[in-house]
Amino acid sequence: MFRPFPLFVGLRYFRAKRRNQFISFISGMSLVSIAIGVMALITVLSVMNGFQDELRDRILSMTSDATVSGFDNRLQDWPAVVRDVHGQPGVVAAAPYVEDQAMLANGANMSGTEIRGVIPNMESTVSDVGRRMVMGSMQDLAPGSYDIVLGKDLAYALGAAPGDKVILMISQGNVTPAGLIPRFRRFTVSGIFDAGMYEYDRGLAFINIKDAQTLYGFDDAVSGVRLKLQDKYQAPQIARELTARFNGAFYVSDWTQEHVNFFKAIAMEKTVMFIILSLIELVAAISIAITLVMAVTDKQADIAILRTLGASPRSIMGIFIVQGTIIGFLGTLIGLILGVVLATYLNDIMHFLQHVFHTEFLPSSVYYISDLPAVIVTGDVLRITLASFVLTVLSTLYPAWRAANTQPAEALRYE
């Protein structure tokens, strides 16, 4: 079977036992460093992808994929808007809402919050709040009942439990001879939800939409209509299509606009982590270069003999490129396998270590996400392996060039 001369000799050099054991040691460490770097990159970026998806799901479980609202926070004839958006491809469900700020009080405990008036049956089609109830039910929010559902941390701050009475005060007040008196109403706590995100658990409360309209003087108007989409990643495109459909009469936004800074921060963190962990690959590449430089020095006589027998400088250069490339390929392959396996079974490994050491690495009382969600993205894996392999190949160029420029007479002078 024919094999090119540089490949044949390069493979022989790679498999051969070296006279200088230190070169073998550095070569082995270079391979291990590449494997560790690739494994670490794949695992860390997979975990960050998992956290991003988990946080996105938790955010969207309480918010909407897209929203149609009035420019003055008033949307008249909302049933017509709901009918129109249902005719838009990609829209699965729609639900009206009334949203405004308020102050809640329970005895001496007071807290500002965002009040969201909803129709329970319709709200369950656009959000997961009904499935995140830990006490009570969203269906208890009947019109005129003046019941309220609080977030877990908000209920804790107020010292309120289901069945307790809380006072809801809003800034729109009543003008009396004594001055402006804030409007307030007594509500009964009918339930508590746990969204798993402090932003919502501490600052959001639900009431029936009719009670909200009465309290805030909306009459039959609402703040807007929340939409559930078939594919949340199509939200920007559908928002643009709805804007055109309504001729700019309403303000249409999507979840990527509302939380753009948050997801940009995660993307930046992923980029920074990729750069930082790539330094491991850089160190490994430098080690490969050092290994090959020492190998070139060690093989001076062999190189001179090959040159004397007619080997071209390009062939000599190819021999040492093959050596370094094999180290980079094996290290990248091992790191790829270990990284994918580690990311796949990361939670099982973490649970095993917690059991062995009788500890909890991410206690649920402190962290909202107590597991390590890992999502392996094919694009990230390909980018990591390609970057690692290219970096190791580039590291072979200088030692190979140095070998190609070896002068046979000089190399054999002292042999």
Can you walk through the features of this model?
- This protein has helices at residues 5-15, 21-62, 78-86, 120-123, 152-158, 198-203, 209-216, 235-245, 255-258, 260-298, 300-308, 313-344, 346-357, 378-395, 397-404, 408-412; strands at 66-69, 91-106, 109-118, 133-135, 147-151, 165-176, 179-193, 204-208, 224-229, 251-254.
- The model has no long low-confidence stretch (mean pLDDT 83).
- It has 2 domains: 5-57 and 262-412, no CATH class; 71-249, no CATH class.
- By secondary structure, it is α+β, with helices and mostly antiparallel strands.
- It is built from 16 helices and 10 strands.
- α1 packs across α12, α10 runs parallel beside α14 and α10 packs parallel to α15 (397-404).
- The chain has a 6-stranded mixed barrel.
- A hairpin with a 2-residue loop joins β2 (91-106) and β3.
Terminal-residue CA separation? 34 Å
The Rg value, from CA coordinates, equals 33 Å
Structural class: alpha+beta
Share of β-strand residues: 15-25%
Average pLDDT metric: 83
How many domain units? 2
The gross shape turns out to be: elongated
Task: Tell me about the largest β-sheet.
Answer: 6 strands, mixed, barrel
Helical fraction: 40-55%
* Model regions low in confidence, pLDDT < 50 over at least 5 residues: none
Please report the number of helical segments: 16
Highlighted features:
about 425 residues, alpha+beta, six-stranded mixed barrel, about 55% helix, elongated
Quick synopsis:
The protein has 415 residues and is α+β, with helices and mostly antiparallel strands. It has two domains: 5-57 and 262-412, no CATH class; 71-249, no CATH class. The protein has helices at residues 5-15, 21-62, 78-86, 120-123, 152-158, 198-203, 209-216, 235-245, 255-258, 260-298, 300-308, 313-344, 346-357, 378-395, 397-404, 408-412, and strands spanning 66-69, 91-106, 109-118, 133-135, 147-151, 165-176, 179-193, 204-208, 224-229, 251-254.
